[in-house]
Write a structure and sequence with these properties.
By secondary structure, the protein is an alpha+beta fold. Helices cover 19% and strands 46% of the residues. A hairpin with a 4-residue loop joins strand 6 and strand 7. The protein starts with a strand and ends with a strand.
Length: 116
C-alpha cells in the first residue's frame, strides 16, 4: 500500500479570476505565488490554495482537495481497486508535477498529486 502525505492542495473553480484573487489575497494575507491567466496559486501556512478559471466548464463544480502521494499510479490502482472511479488519469502539469482525479462511490471528486 502506498502512503499519502495529507491534503496540501485545494483548487477552487472561479468564474472571475481577478475578483477571486482579491478576495483570497485578503483572506490569506499573502500575495499569490503563481499569478497567470489560467491559474493563481497561494502558499499559506503550508497549504497550496489554487484558483482555476473556467474549471466549471471542465467539470470542476466545487473545490477539489488533493492528497500528495509518492506514487500516483500505485495510489490510483489502490483507490480504483477499492471502488473509486478514475475521472482524469495522471498527467504532467509542469515542473514534473503529476495530477489525477477520481470519484468516490458518492461522486465526490478527489485528487492526487505527485511531485517528482
Amino acid at each position: 500500500m502506498s502512503s499519502t502525505h495529507g491534503i496540501k492542495t485545494v483548487l477552487h473553480p472561479v468564474s472571475d479570476l481577478a475578483k477571486a484573487k482579491a478576495v483570497y489575497t485578503a483572506l490569506l494575507g499573502v500575495a499569490p505565488q503563481a499569478d497567470g491567466p489560467y491559474y493563481v496559486g497561494f502558499q499559506a501556512q503550508g497549504q497550496q490554495i489554487g484558483l482555476v478559471p473556467g474549471a466549471a466548464a471542465q467539470g470542476m463544480a466545487a473545490p477539489v482537495a488533493y492528497w500528495h502521494v509518492d506514487n500516483i499510479e500505485a495510489k490510483l490502482a489502490e483507490v480504483t481497486g477499492a471502488g473509486a472511479t478514475l475521472k482524469d488519469p495522471a498527467r504532467d502539469v509542469g515542473g514534473g508535477r503529476l495530477v489525477a482525479t477520481f470519484t468516490d462511490p458518492d461522486g465526490n471528486v478527489l485528487g492526487l498529486i505527485q511531485d517528482r
